[in-house]
Amino acid sequence: MPGPQTPPRLDGSRRKGLIIVHTGNGKGKTTAALGLALRAVGHGWRVLMVQFIKGNWPYGEMDAAKRLAPELTIKPMGEGFTWDTKNPERDAAKARECWEFGVSGARSGEYQLVIFDEINYALAYGYLPLDEVLAFLKTKPESLHVILTGRDAPKELIDAADTVTEMREVKHAFAQGVKAQKGIEF
Ligand code: ATP
Ligand code: MG
User: Fold this and answer.
1) Closest Cα partner for 117 from 57, 181, 36, 174?
2) Whose CA is nearest to atom 15 of ligand 1?
3) Separation CA 80–CA 150 (nearest Å)
4) Predicted TM-score of the model (pTM)
5) What is the pLDDT of residues 45-93, one digit of tens each?
């Protein structure tokens, strides 16, 4: 008889779609999500990453995704960093567009993994209601894996998730005045 500490056994043939959160102030939230995407593509899965902040300027991951097409799709739907915004209504509309694109991808059955990159910023700025995100997570296709990234993940999101990793900054080159570098930051 398994005791109360024994983790439930998963039948190897049945996938449990996980809710994974990457949060914290240290570097690695988006890149860890890309690492999982790379792993998933290796199994022939289809992966969709929607990006709430990154826009249409050259990012290494965008060009890498083209090489991993059609398995990997990265959809940059942002326009930069929201704290510089002159137009919060527009940013809110962009965040909604990004959210709805990701949700429809998630519900389409086309993907095994969907990544909402920097969604926590959209939540923190009130561009997206947390309840809507939680409702989606409750009703998502069972076998679909979802990753949500960004600093300051709300407690309710952490509670709803299966796997949560907090990247903690021990050091960052930025503090020495090193600017964002190609291949490392973008
Ligand atoms: P990465 O995309 O490198 O995995 P991230 O997703 O964890 O980073 P974000 O909060 O999305 O980090 O940060 C956006 C940008 O800021 C990235 O270019 C990232 O490398 C950089 N960055 C991340 N953490 C720090 C930090 N502690 N100090 C300064 N810059 C950081
Ligand atoms: Mg990031």
Assistant:
1) 36
2) 185
3) 14
4) 0.91
5) 999 999 998 776 778 999 999 999 999 999 998 876 545 567 888 889 9
pLDDT of residue 90: 87
pLDDT digits (tens, 9 = 90+) for 9-50: 555 556 799 999 999 999 999 999 999 999 999 999 999 999
**Nearest atom in ligand 1 to 31's CA:** 4
Q: Please identify every residue annotated as catalytic.
A: 25, 27, 29-31, 39, 81, 83, 118
The pocket around ligand 1, CB under 6 angstroms, is made up of: 25-31, 118, 149, 151, 167, 169, 172, 174, 180, 185
Q: How far is the CA of 160 from the centre of ligand 1 (A)?
A: 24
CATH number for the region 19-168 comes to 3.40.50.300
Question: Hey, where are the domains in the chain?
Answer: 19-168
Residue nearest to atom 4 of ligand 1 (CA): 28
